[in-house]
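Exercise: predict the fold of this chain.
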Amino acid sequence: MNSFNKQAALTPPKNASELLDIYFLDIRSALLESAAALDRIERAAGGKDILDDPRIQDLKRACNIIMDGKNNRSEQILLLLSHPLE
């Protein structure tokens, strides 16, 4: 085992507060970027008509998954947004 692996193995896991400190700005940025993209789509010509598009509906379902509090959110969203090839 090289010194990098030994150091990584000895590093104690981060607690929830430390993880929030690490990821908060990235999560905030992703949420703002997603909201802005949806705003642009809605404001564009035909934007109101596209709100029934199945992709928009899937994105709304993904937002609900984020809010539901279960710990397998990424798996659920991946399955939701991964459509089999036809």
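Check your answer against the key: The mean pLDDT is 90.
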